[in-house]
Amino acid sequence: MSRAEQILTTLVQQNIPVQEQADLTAKARAYLALLQSRGLADERVAAQLAFDCIKAGNSQKKLPAELYDKVNYLCRCYMDRVARFYLCYDFVPDVTALQTAIICLYEKAPIFHSLFTDDHIRPYWKVTDYHIDDVFSVIAADDLPAAAVAFLEQSVSMDDPSQMKIALVHNGTHSILAFRWNHMIMDGGGFKQFTADLCNAYNQYRKTGDAPLDFRTGSRKYTKVYDDMPASLRKKAKAQFAGVTVKEKRKLPFTPVDGSECNCIVYHSVEKDVMQAAIAVAKQNGATVNDLLCAAYIWACYAVMGEAQKPLHLSCAVDLRRYIRQPETLGYTNHTTFMYCSVPHLPESDIQLLQQVHESNDKNKQDPFLGLHGIPLLNIGYATMVQLQAEAVVKLFYNNADIALSNVGAVDVKGFALDGYHVTDALVAGGAKVKPCAAATVLTCNGKLTISVCTQGNQQDRDMLHSFFGFFEQFLRSIAPN
């Protein structure tokens, strides 16, 4: 009997009634062998994880396809449905500890090694086998950001045994931990929790050698947004059938699609001192940081597209976790929708534009059902029709915004620390969109802001987006001159 089997037997004898021990031991030993075949080398952790998973009944073969899974699957028509993120550190984490933490997380949340099966009737997730090498890779490089971006620009195949890819890119002294994953599994808010759990697991294992098992295993259902509402408000929220369908007809000047396109991430950073000065001015005028970013994006659109006298509608991401008071009940999933920030024209001054944006966003925030409009309609479509029919109907009113902004917010540099080393920099990018979509994603890390667009484009498209980001920063600088 191996050491892992001995540990497993002891766990069963100490925690399980005698009459149940034989059956659970047999199942746990089979699961232990599976974990070891997946690359989990630590026998103590493997035994504890096998016992914990079998005791919890965590051996599903299928997982339900939730509403947001189906909606994000529809987005394959407009993008590669892959989300991207990286974190920078001034050291190189322990590879074995990272592998151990990743496997433990994968076992507690099998959605990460499940394949979406579209049978045109009732789609579902099929839980599949995997090896840690399918998930995690180590890349040695001199230019860390370039190597990390090259890793992120790749996609994730729908039939891959792992729906997330993680790379540790390093030069021996510094490193970047890069992630790309199927957006159907989780959004930026879900990824924040995933990253916090992964970092905590890594640190726990490094300190104690114990199996890191404290991960989110809650519900992935869209209905979680209603659970914490008062009964009267919940009833009204579930009756919000009118979707937000504002359509901005103008586009950024991408080149025509000619078949030569490839996935490319274009990003730009604005230094901390510039951001602090601009944020101070925004607050003096009663505006939020998000108002400021929306105004900068809109100003850049006008600078590139012209037509200053015409209105412009910017689609802005809304995290529906705002309605969930018990986040510990959530699993890793999507809870993001959109609202529209609209301005009637480009005003004469930057402050006037900021005020217009603030008024539009503030009006949206007064809506007690912000972001919930249209969700019941989507649910009716997917619940009452087979998948093939539902997709055809949803496409008739689904609006894939070409001008959009998603603010991920500030990176928790301390909460994402590894071995006591805080995050020094970060980058986020969404799916590689089909032109002319210019959906941008922004985050701040240590006070510095980074904005990015991931597109399927060419060098001319890259140059145009760099110019666009230049205008974005120009607005931030002009609103708070030195």
For the structure shown, list the relevant keywords.
16 helices, Chloramphenicol Acetyltransferase, globular, 482 residues, five-stranded mixed beta sheet, 14 strands, single chain, alpha+beta
Summary of the model, kept short:
The protein has 482 residues and is an alpha+beta fold.
Which helices and strands appear, and what pairs or packs with what?
Blueprint: H1 3-15, H2 18-37, H3 43-55, E1 62-64, H4 67-74, E2 82-89, H5 95-108, E3 114-117, E4 124-127, H6 132-135, E5 136-140, H7 144-152, E6 164-170, E7 175-182, H8 188-208, H9 224-227, H10 231-237, E8 262-270, H11 272-284, H12 289-305, E9 312-319, E10 336-343, H13 350-365, H14 375-384, H15 387-397, E11 404-410, E12 425-429, E13 440-445, E14 448-457, H16 459-479
Parallel strand pairs: 5-6, 9-11, 11-13
Antiparallel strand pairs: 1-4, 2-7, 2-12, 3-4, 6-7, 8-14, 9-10, 13-14
Helix pairs in contact: 1-2, 1-3, 2-3, 5-8, 11-16, 12-13, 12-16, 14-15
N-to-C SSE series? HHHEHEHEEHEHEEHHHEHHEEHHHEEEEH
Uncertain regions spanning at least 5 consecutive residues = none
Question: Which geometry do the CA atoms define?
Answer: globular
CATH topological fold name of the largest domain? Chloramphenicol Acetyltransferase
The tally of helices reads 16
Strand order of the largest sheet: 8-14-13-11-9-10
Distance, first to last CA: 72 Å
Percent of residues in helices comes to 40-55%
